[in-house]
Amino acid sequence: MATAEPVLKPDFQSKRKHFIFTDEHEQLRESIRAFATKELAPHAEEWEETTFPDSVFTRMGELGFLGLDKPEAYGGQGGDYYTSLVLAEEIVHAQSGGLAMGVAVHTDMAMPPILAFGTEAQKQQWVVPAIKGEKILCLGITEPDAGSDVAGIKTRAVRDGDEYVINGSKTYITNGHRADVIVLVTKTDPDAGYDGFSLFLVPMDLPGVIREKKLQKLGMHSSDTALLAFQDVRVPADAVLGQVGKGFYHIMWELQGERLIGAAGCVAGAQAVFTRTLQYAQDRTAFGRKIGNFQVIRHKFAEMATKIEAARQLVYMTAWRFQNGEYPVREISMAKLYAARIAVEVADECIQIHGGAGYMKEYGIERVWRDMRLNRIGAGTDEVMLDVIGRSYGL
Amino acid sequence: MSDPTATAAAAPPPFTDELQRFRAHLRAFIARELAPHAAEWERARSFPNQVFATLAAEGYLGLKYPAELGGGAVSGEGFRVGGVLADAVLSEELARCGSGGLAAGIGAHIGIATPPIWIFGTPEQQRRYLPAAIRGERIGALAITEPGAGSDVAGIRTRARRVNGGFVVNGSKLFITNGVRADFLVTAVTTGEGAGGHHGLSFLIIDRGPGVHSSPIEKLGWHASDTALIAFEDVFAPEENLLGQENEGFYLIMGNFQWERLLMALGAVGAMTWALERTLPVARELGRRRGGDAQALRHRVAEIAVGLQAARDLTYHALRLHAEGRDALREVTMAKLATQRRCHDVLDACLQIHYDAAGAASEAQVADLERGVRDARLGPIGGGTDEIMREILGRSLGL
Fold this sequence. Notes:
Order of helices and strands of chain A: HHHHHHEEEEEEEEHEEHHHHH
Structural class of chain B: alpha+beta
Strand order of the largest sheet of chain B: 3-6-7-10
Strand content of chain A: 5-15%
Largest sheet of chain B: 4 strands, mixed
Radius of gyration of chain A: 22 Å
Radius of gyration of chain B: 21 Å
Helix content of chain A: 40-55%
Shape of chain A: globular
Number of domains of chain A: 3
Number of helices of chain A: 12
Number of strands of chain B: 10
Oligomer: heterodimer
Largest interface: A-B, 61 and 70 residues
CATH topology of the largest domain in chain A: Butyryl-CoA Dehydrogenase, subunit A, domain 3
Number of domains of chain B: 3
Strand order of the largest sheet of chain A: 1-4-5-8
Distance between the termini of chain A: 44 Å
CATH superfamily of the largest domain in chain A: Butyryl-CoA Dehydrogenase, subunit A, domain 3
CATH architecture of the largest domain in chain A: Up-down Bundle
Largest sheet of chain A: 4 strands, mixed
Strand content of chain B: 15-25%
Number of helices of chain B: 11
CATH class of the largest domain in chain B: Mainly Alpha
CATH architecture of the largest domain in chain B: Up-down Bundle
Shape of chain B: globular
CATH superfamily of the largest domain in chain B: Butyryl-CoA Dehydrogenase, subunit A, domain 3
CATH class of the largest domain in chain A: Mainly Alpha
């Protein structure tokens, strides 16, 4: 198989499709991109003020985008894991980090544990309408006193006959105001350590579920983020999701998928702001030439492009392992950490290249920076990722 | 085979299970035949020519060349592999010999000196040079850089004047790996009207002989590599040693750079993998000494591992494209840029952990890493500097 390498003419416009993707993935990519560009992006500015409407879910449900990798038996498309990666990448063309996050919480954070651990009845009750976009899901882990330290959560669920009574509060809950149901992490046995947690599916219209306030944030303004209180909320015993006492492990499993999807979104977000800024650098002149033709600016783009490509390959290769049935916690943590960091760095550099325009709301670059910043915190901070990776080496 | 960044069994494309078995086999060979001599050859400022013969006996000098020239696939338990990907595995694994200079000397022969003859040479030139090179009997070097022309190859001044039956060469070449020992030098010369420029460059295969003077150069690292200043004084090269088309040498340089840069990226991935593997037990010992207070250390190791994994995935991506015969100029350039400085930084961080954990590793192990850091410093310079990589990438974006 010895081959002489011909000297090939570079073709920078050619599509370099990664081996994990097929033509079908590329078609899906096109259609999600067209949808996001035509139907979502024009409203991005407005939704920063109002949060995006629930109709985004119903429309995406109609188009089949909410169940791409979910089983056909529940109304999904039955695609592979890569289809959800494609969604995470292309939804960035909505130009609204908060919208992308709201959708991802629904499809890739709250829905997978119901499918993985839920009963048939629970799947019929929640997953089927969720894939149609008729019911909206959210996930409740973080509490006012427990963020990275998931084991420190205090929300209690106490058995009372055929029911559980839930008390506690959850914060920073994406979709918390609009959701129909929450996948709620509770403590059912305070003395059992990691074995004392259980998940519940709690309908958000039950008495005692209080949507306290819409939280104001640095970015992700189009996302609805809630502080929730649960006061003597009674749910039947069959509202338990998965096994009683296994909630901590269930949620740790869930976080893996969430992190990888988040990483894919970071890469795509970085690529999008890079592309816009490249265009700007080719249009804008200063000191008598295009600013992109200044060597220092050119080198900034070279560095950014390299970082983005490295992050993309890290995400794709990790997804490849995931799709192959591996459970690559270390690599997922690496992809999440690296992609989140470079997304913030790239957004910051893009503001710098835009100069004053980058600081102004009108250009939308500052919004990317604000939206991206969350990725180094949400779904596990950089520091938690480093801890997970370091511990995986026995340290 | 314990690869610290791989928790998975599946071979990452473009590698196959067969290539991974070859990798394991090579790893054992390198640990047995090369690594034990790293310190000695470092002190000697050279490694013996016998190394080429040892590698040739295993078939490692001709993996990507055809059988009729003496190259081709090699076999072992559970593998029969050859071609570009087998060569890529070799380049990555060679880093584990623990001597950048040794890896560079071998790499210069198989990765940069012989490929131009294979790609641009006539069948006659291939027959004249490659079988002996693949047997490790004649050693090659690529001579492009000059005292006045490094990153800027358009500044090359070594002149080949046409005479009856060939060329007479005058000029000098600098930083030429294998330059003292080489039997033949694939040399960039100006042949066009006027000096330099992209369209006046040609390549000549210059055999060692009268008028070729080489002298070794002292360096920061890569001590085991024979790196030379070469002077050509009225050296005659026959017409049949013109490699590729006259005045189209720039094209040859550009073509060759892709593979060279890819090999450097692979070498950096190999070196980082090697360094992390050696550092993990030391870090664990340090963690034990520090009791419960080792979070900074844990994060430090995690940072090393993340940097390595990102470098590996990007490099393999570029390799996949290149091996498929696709243009991968941008990806190869990115892989080179993303790996070289990082390799130095990763090895330096590993060394720091060794210093912190004084006594946890042997003096020889510490010396291995010290050598590794020195050797890695060349990465952001050789094969095109980081700054040149940024230029290429920036221009590829239309800037």
